[in-house]
Amino acid sequence: MDIITTHIGADFDSLAAMVAAKRLYPDAELVFPGSQKKSVRDYLAQEFRNIYEFKKIGHADLTRVRRLIVVDTRQAGRIGNLAACLDNPGIDIHLYDHHPDTPDDIRGAVETVAPFGATTTIFTRLFQERGIVPGPDELTLMALGIYEDTGGFLHSSTRPEDLEAASWLLAHGANLDIVSQFVSRELSAEQVSLIDELQRQAQSYVICGVTVVISTLASADYIADSSIIVQRLMVMENIDVLFALLNLGERIYLIARSRIPEVNVGAIAREFGGGGHASAASATFRDLTIAEAEEQLVGLLHRHIRPQAVAGDLMSSPVISVTPEVSIDQANQLMTRYNVTVLPVVRESGGPENDAPPVGFLGMITRAVAEKAIFHKLGDLPVADYMTTELATIPESGTLADIQRLIVENHQRLIPVVQDEAIVGVITRTDLLDLLIHDPAHLSPDLLRGDERPSVERTRNLANLMTQVLSRDSIVLLREIGETAAAFGCNAYVAGGFVRDLLLQVRNIDIDVVIEGDGIRFARALAQQRQGVVHPHEKFGTSTVIFPDQTRIDVATARLEYYEHPAAMPTVEHSSIKLDLHRRDFTINAMAIHLNPQQFGVLVDHFNCQNDLKERRIQVLHNLSFVEDPTRIFRAIRFESRLDFTITRHTEKLIKNTVREDLFGQVEGPRFFHELKLILSEDNPAPALRRMAYFKLFPLLWPDLQPNLKIDRRFLHLLTQAERAIAWFKLLYLPDRLETWMVYLLAIMSRTQTRDLTAFCQRFDLPPRQQRKLVTQKAEAERIAQELQKRDFLRPSEIYWLLVDFEIEGLLYLMTIARKRFIQQAVSLFVTTLRKVTPLVGGDELKAMGYIPGPLFRAIRNHLIELQLDGEIADHDQALAFIRAQYPVDSQLQRPR
Q1: Neighbours of 186 (CB within 10 A)
Q2: What's the mean pLDDT in 279-306?
Q3: Largest Cα–Cα separation, the chain
Q4: Is the distance from CB of 359 to CB of 397 less than 8 angstroms?
Q5: N or C: which terminus of the chain has fewer CB atoms within 10 Å of its end residue's CB?
Q6: What angle do CA 368, 372, 374 make, to 5 degrees?
Q7: What is the DSSP string of 195-233?
Q8: CA 445 to CA 867: how far, in whole Å?
């Protein structure tokens, strides 16, 4: 059996070449290896009149194929399952193609390859040589193939032979009306919209002096004629090199076009399993996300456009280094002696006094970290405690693109150049800057992909995302904040967790505004404009603004902070947005969005925080972050648990250092308790509590409690019971205010004495009201749980009098510790029904009957409630009869006045 086939995603050139090949191999079957472009499918349905029958690949017995005729490709990866035929014994392969040669091309017994603009041109010339004149439909299809693949003879790959072939086809009867219907038609409204979207998503990369545009587009539906849309965008924007990545359903399509010889898009498309020639190429793949594809594409561009090994030339040597046990004081002295600002930390040191290079890169220590550690009286500690780890190295063959990527993406001040394990040199940011200044051709401000470059440079705009995620009222408020700031001549940003959650596409109503200027003055102006109220905090330059609808925002002056000693409250000074973001706890919270009208929605990401957000990791911004504020440890744990992120190994090491040095004692109790309260207010605090135990935080928080607190099966069971009780209560949608942290705290303290809870409250300086509430609810719940262990039944009135004085938190705690189900059922009955019961005879009616308010008055009401609860009194008349019989007015000397 003979088969004629082409590449997956067949276009008009491949279809025409298949039909033309049928003239040369009349006994062969026409088999598509996969899908075709929509325009091709439409043509086959409307115009081709089924002259030839196309067989589905599933209907062909591939083991019986003896001759395989492949047109418009020579790539095995592009013919789908038909590639299995290549292994058939004695297979005879015939190839017809116009694409450039590649090392992994299929080899055939017959190879007809020519660098024309279309494969159909090859068959047209063969027909001319052999005197074959096809019918009008075939002539039209062949003309259509040439017109499409040469872009109407405008692609740079067009050759004179293509025009001659089209002329011959037209002279023998090709129908240009049909050709124009499928090639030169006007763009539809949908296609214009798609071009606009590609324009908005387009990003320019300057790679070794060549500007390359990459655009991405995601759609749940297949986009017909996507190559036409890409070509139109290229012409409209006068782009020399354009790559479009289209995420359509389960596949990603790469469409590439180039007008310049420096960029061979065919070679790059082949790296993705596709093909094409230097000026036009494409590929289809499934195993990458669109972000991964873009990242890989950028890397390939650097390699294909102008790879240049410069690490070995650019590095400095010999390397000055320290070993991990060297003290921070000694490292600082060494940096002063050699006038350097960073030292590699290595397993075995080398340097100027040692001919052997240092071995085993472990991390680095900077002068800034060393001096700050010395300021905090930590200079005698080893550099291993506060060195930066998880850093990348580079071989001597590393390219300039590799160096730029590491310095920008990883924020590395220094890149060790390694050979095996030996560090043969180092490259610093200064080395790179000197090279770029003296050779501007190397300068690549748009080197990295969109989410890796500082967004203040690439002006990534999140306005569309804001529209999708935020409410209309929130967007109106943010725009008004920006307009007010512009009127004041200052810059306004929304920052912190709001931006983090927006990028995670989670709605967050906690708006933190940062003003480059006088934040308090701005807050007062905004409040006056919106009839709001301002609560300023002069010491920190912050304000809370509450609007009439109770919407509230926090406004802060852009500031930097420094700490007089470990765990101190910060001293605040005015600053810029960059320094304000740098003072924040973690990278994921160190982003901002411009709110001023001209830049509304532009993301500010000076520290590549989006990378950590994308990789779902919690990372500090500087190595002494936990020394200066140990409460950040609890925040790291809370974010890790809530967001399902991971604390990085480097950040984890810094947490352990802080715990080991016991820097918690100088932190005020309420600050710790605030963080603990937030953890216990999470829907499921158990993972965070496990991490607290892992980091050995419980002995530091309350040493007296430590022997009794173990994260064991019983502890986790209590937390689960508390979680269930809270979830049950929330599903009732009752108006009662519930402080969930209290329920979890009571569950944690359930195996301690009441005095331990009292000591806990005093250690963390809880307000007296909260102290009384916690201690009372613990004592009463545990007393009742103990008393009811021997009971199996309670009358409704008994339940009522047992529970009537409880707070909601105490009731849920009782459900948590109850070992008998009937106790939990009793609490449920009380919360949902019993506590709502009121006397059928009210106070005013009792007074009208002659009863005077007092002890007897209350006794009547309580007795009445009890009988109602137990079902002995069902209506108002029965209640009146009971009162008159049991509490006669005359006998009690209770007469009306």
Answers
A1: 6
A2: 86
A3: 132
A4: no
A5: C
A6: 120
A7: HHHHHHH-EEEEETTEEEEEEEEEESS--TTHHHHHHHH
A8: 82
Extract the tokens encoding 729. Answer: 């209560």
Q: Residue 644: how many CB atoms within 10 A of its CB?
A: 9
DSSP 282-336: EEEESSS-HHHHHHHHHHHHHHHH---B-HHHH-B-SPP-B-TTSBHHHHHHHHH
Question: What are 255's strand-pairing partners?
Answer: 244, 282
User: What is the sign of the dihedral through the CA atoms of 866, 870, 872 and 874?
Assistant: positive
pLDDT at site 569: 52
3-state secondary structure of 461: strand
- Check: CB of residue 16 under 8 Å from CB of residue 142: yes
Kindly report the length of the chain: 897
User: 396-426: buried (b, 16+ CB within 10 Å) or exposed (e) per residue?
Assistant: bebbbbbbbbbbbbbebbbbbbbeeebbbbb
Mean pLDDT of 705-722: 75
Angstrom distances, CA of residue 105 to CA of 272, 302, 625 = 15, 24, 56
In whole angstroms, give the CA distance from residue 785 to residue 791.
Answer: 10
Please, what is the Cα angle at 498 between 497 and 502, to 5 degrees? Answer: 115
Q: Which amino acid is at 328?
A: I
**Under 8 Å CB-to-CB from 665, ≥6 apart: which residues?**
567
Q: Is 432 exposed, middle or buried (0-12, 13-18, 19+ CB in 10 A)?
A: buried
Q: What is the pLDDT of residue 145?
A: 94
Token digits of residue 714:
């019983």
pLDDT tens sequence across 659-686: 887 766 555 678 888 889 999 999 889 8
